[in-house]
Write a structure and sequence with these properties.
By secondary structure, the chain is an all-alpha fold. It has helices at residues 20-29, 32-39, 45-52, 57-76, 87-105, 114-146, 151-180, 182-203, 219-223, 226-256, 261-268, 270-288, 295-311, 324-356, 363-395, 397-424.
Amino acid sequence: MEENQCLITPHTTYVRCSSKLFLGAVLMLYQFAPAWFMCLPSLFLPIVFVEERDWSRFMVGCLIAVFSTVRLILYLTVNKHINSVGSKLAMGLMGSISSIAYIAFGFVLYIDNAILFIIVCFVLRIIEGSFINVAYMYSYGVVMDLFPDKRPLLTGLALVTSGIFITSGPIVGGALFYNVGFQWAFIIPGIAALILSIYVGLASPPTIMDRSFDRKLTYFRVVGNPIAIILGILQWFMSCSYEYFFTGYAFYAFHNYHLSFPTITALLVTTPAVEGILSLMLSFLFEKYPNINTVYITLPGNALMVVALQLIGPTPLFEIPAYLEISAVGCLLIGVAIGMNRISNLETIARVALRRQQCSDDVDTRSLLHQYIIILYSIGNITGAILGGLFSDHFGFAIAGTIISLFGLPFVCILLIYLIVYRIQGKSIYQPVS
């Protein structure tokens, strides 16, 4: 099909004159909805709910984690039956319902009753997380089917764009909150997602998802090896660290360094900026030079996160001076660590699956790999928000960072030992299993 040829299927009731390229770009952009719905309130929600509604940081963490919890359940259950509902219905209707729920969340502060306030907040977050994530599952599959010869690159780009939206979400949310207020910080992104949901629902070919799925392909078949498991745990650690950082740092900097909200937002801009640049660079680098050993980028990226978590407080356990400049360096290093890890980790797991596990490089394998990463992201988001809030309530934000870093440090060491042993034996982690 030519790039600018209209997308027409046998069951199409009208001609869609959107090009494949334009539709693919819009579907990639559509990832902003689940990413921003999940993390856009992370920066300002703790401040508002703790200060105005007397919530604990643990309670706020649970509210933020609800979205990721729903996403995790969907990926473990509904995702395998994703072809049972047409993509038009999923991306159009479900995306619209979630967008309306997100807009409605902007009005929760008008509820005075404490119990009703808690119930409405959690119900709206559940609706947001359930419907928009199903729509996202379809959008990813549609992009994969539109460009079957670019699946490896698109898998990386999907993770990059999703990652950029995730890391930039709290910054955008903070800017909206400061400039237009709590209510409009939900209304503006919600309306944008609603418009985009309607468009992709109308523009996507209804039969594009009608493809057979290899039911014999399982997570164990694709990622059932030590390297993928270790990297999966480290992926969880990175996501957990990120969620702890963005849900707690604004509150901490506001009270500890007495920074204004615009200053905090400006300080945190470095994290998504560096992460986005590094992720894009590595994505195209791995596409152009497929023989680069990606694990040697993943390993220092995870080690750097362990170091960064000591600096953002900074932690008093190592007698690091509590200077704002040191904390700012920690924020920058978190962006570098996530940028180094996001694509290299996925690419390493993919190469292990394709070369060591000898899986076929098709849409099913790539989809399972993507789902594996998303599931780990979700678990990390849940544990980071909840444990970060819990540890911050009991030990303080700075010490909480050191505790969370201990989750990843052992597996960084295990991965390093694993690679040294393979190096001594003259083997490669990508060597096929006999």
